[in-house]
């Protein structure tokens, strides 16, 4: 038995805004994390985080505190004996639910806690998260999913079938991953805050480092977007994949018009072409820009949004985030719905710890759900990994399999001290 | 000129949970408000609030604080010279937007601030909010709307046309409202927390008080729902309207099945039959239960969600909330989209101050947008009005027109002191 005896939440912020890293059409901030530690009487500590963009990280921290009574005093064994009951204690709290429901600050806080509980479970089992998930019995995985409000798209029986069938050939796929790693693409070349020269320089470096898939930000002036796209395409050659990400700045008709201009540069996908809540808008865009697939999901709030994006044929790429939704449990629902609808999952990463998180999800997806690497890639951004005790290893455009127990988002003690806001040394220097 | 020199935010909570008031299928809490005061150098104070359900109200309060720098130091005149620019400073803040975007805690906080700014404007003009809005030039109303992400459903030109045409006959309609009041329905009879005897007693009282439209909560055991529905129908007779509200507990297919059982009691509408984010689910339910209209909106996060509900034919009744969306500006977008799609607006009320707020919106909608009372009613719950300096007046099932300047959500100073959490006298007594 491991009983959770304390929840500590830390407001961790990295001063990235000053460098222009991470700038896109509508976000420019200090990459931050609402960092949760669950201490147990067994000596182990589970960690989870949700990513934010700087100011406001104190709000998600406070939301974690508002949920702490649902987790402190409970044992990991008891939680996983009735995982949906635990999940709903966080996502359907009779008073706090009003603040979402199941979206935004309160749901992100739930995600950080849920992931910390899963991290504990993996550490107790002595397994990296992907391996814990890939080796769990089908019934345990199905029992972790809240089918409420998605049963019209995925039933427990369908989930069971997918997981049972998905297990076939798992051992061979694991061998392949161990040898080759999981395919990745890089988002470090074309942020809007960078000059053309910097974009060219970074693209050349990416190609030299073995990257054959990379993402640029669009959503500035369309002339600038096209120029930068051509510049990158000229550097990477005709065969490499060039993804484009508009970060929701366009209206629906504007997206369709602008993609007509960008299509000559042969985008591998168009990501967040319009407001993330606009399922019907994404569906219209998807029809208009086909065969270029529409990608979205990094701010899709919950499984009900993903359900609709899939039902409406609005996305050709599912970019679930590890901690905007309610953690591993809700991601499982999304992975299985995506598999049922035949849509590849390429999880959102970057930020703080998101690469560390999502590598586990994609590996599990390949080993146990989709069984395929076709169109599957994990986003990679080369920021801030040095702050984690088990950072991702990416070699020649591929994630190597993590081997340490847990979910890989435990911060180095010194980084935690240094970047805690506002009293850490990094912030005292800034002021 | 009136410059905002201070923003004060108060965590106000009323201990309603202990009485079972306000209990429904998934909410049970202490009705609360994140209460914002904007003090100006002109001596006037603008007030706005967003409603919450108890625990977590401190989170929306903190979110208001995170947004304060966008409003303190600005003049009301400057804000309304470029209202969308001001609105986006709150809803598209480059760092805080990530916490929504445009949903949940951060968007509700924006709503409280935006409404306080409008309250100031109305008080400066010496007009109740409905009259300020109804007498604003069309261009000023159009300029207050953020068309971003809704231009595929409503263009500025279409909004202009609706408002210009809507003005015709406004004087006659105002006379009618002044004489007769605005139609209302009551939600005080059938909360799930009440016994059958209490429901019967409250229904009889409502009928005696002149109510001909009332709402019951469903979403318990279906047998219980049907029994209570029959009980209420027997009391109110065949001609009165009986609305039903499931507060999102059903899955899509479950909603369709349960409404087949409840249809014999002739519901006037079915409200929140499933998860509020499920546009496609609502559309399927709407087709299945027709001609019973589907109603939703109290937790629809923003104009993009309303746009889709309307585009998909998913709702027959639009229940916008005054302060879950980003205040008056975003409500204007919703009212105009609803008018374009021919869907009546029956705003969500109850809670704390919501009746006070939405009476203004429905009166404006009738005077200037829809021009019709057909199917239009304002929700009424008889809780907590005594705490406001300009409480609603409802006589024989109709709201009387408010006459005091402003948006009617200013709390009595003594109530503010007494119910501030956790140090007010009302909470000291509870502990």
UniProtKB/TrEMBL annotation, chains A, B:
Its EC number is 4.2.1.68. InterPro entries: Enolase-like_C_sf, Enolase-like_N, Enolase_C-like, L-fuconate_dehydratase, Mandel_Rmase/mucon_lact_enz_CS, Mandelate_racemase_C, Mandelate_racemase_N_dom, RHMD-like. Its cofactor is Mg(2+). GO terms for molecular function: L-fuconate dehydratase activity; magnesium ion binding. Pfam families: MR_MLE_C, MR_MLE_N. GO terms for biological process: amino acid catabolic process; carbohydrate catabolic process. Keywords: Lyase, Magnesium, Metal-binding. Residues 196-292 form the Mandelate racemase/muconate lactonizing enzyme C-terminal domain. It is an enzyme of class 4 (lyase). This is L-fuconate dehydratase. It comes from Dactylosporangium siamense.
């Amino acid at each position: 038995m491991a009983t959770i005896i304390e929840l500590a939440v830390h407001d961790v912020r990295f001063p990235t805004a000053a460098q222009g890293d991470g700038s896109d059409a509508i976000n420019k901030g200090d990459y931050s994390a609402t960092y949760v530690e669950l201490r147990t009487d067994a000596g182990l500590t589970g960690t989870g985080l949700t990513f934010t963009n700087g100011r406001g990280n104190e709000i998600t921290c406070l939301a974690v505190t508002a949920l702490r009574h649902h987790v402190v005093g409970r044992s990991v064994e008891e939680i996983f004996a009735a995982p949906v009951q635990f999940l709903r204690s966080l996502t359907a709290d009779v008073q706090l639910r009003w603040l979402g429901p199941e979206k935004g600050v309160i749901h992100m806080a739930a995600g950080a806690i849920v992931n910390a509980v899963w991290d504990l479970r993996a550490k107790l089992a002595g397994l990296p998260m992907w391996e814990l998930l890939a080796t769990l019995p089908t019934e345990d995985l199905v029992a972790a999913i809240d089918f409420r409000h998605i049963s019209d798209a995925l039933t427990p029986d369908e989930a069971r079938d997918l997981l049972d069938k998905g297990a076939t050939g798992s051992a061979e796929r694991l061998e392949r991953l161990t040898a080759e790693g999981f395919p990745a693409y890089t988002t470090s070349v074309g942020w809007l805050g960078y000059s053309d020269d910097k974009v060219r320089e970074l693209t050349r470096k990416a190609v030299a480092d073995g990257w054959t898939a990379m993402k640029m930000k669009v959503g500035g002036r369309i002339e600038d977007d096209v120029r930068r796209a051509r510049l990158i395409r000229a550097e990477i050659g005709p065969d490499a994949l060039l993804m484009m990400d508009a970060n929701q700045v366009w209206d629906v008709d504007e997206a369709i018009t602008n993609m007509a201009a960008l299509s000559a540069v042969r985008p591998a996908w168009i990501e967040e072409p319009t407001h993330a809540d606009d399922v019907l808008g994404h569906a219209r865009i998807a029809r208009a820009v086909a065969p270029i697939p529409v990608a979205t999901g990094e701010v899709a709030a919950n499984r009900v949004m993903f359900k609709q994006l899939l039902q409406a044929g609005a996305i050709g790429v599912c970019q679930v985030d590890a901690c905007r939704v309610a953690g591993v449990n809700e991601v499982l629902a999304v992975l299985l719905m995506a598999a049922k609808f035949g849509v590849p999952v390429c999880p959102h990463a970057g930020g703080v710890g998101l690469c560390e998180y999502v590598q586990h999800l994609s590996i599990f997806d390949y080993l146990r759900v989709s069984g395929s690497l076709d169109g599957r890639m994990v986003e990679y951004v080369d920021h801030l990994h040095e702050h984690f005790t088990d950072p991702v290893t990416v070699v020649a455009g591929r994630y190597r399999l993590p081997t340490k127990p847990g979910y890989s988002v435990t911060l180095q003690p010194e980084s935690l001290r240094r970047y805690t806001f506002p009293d850490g040394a990094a912030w005292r220097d800034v002021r």
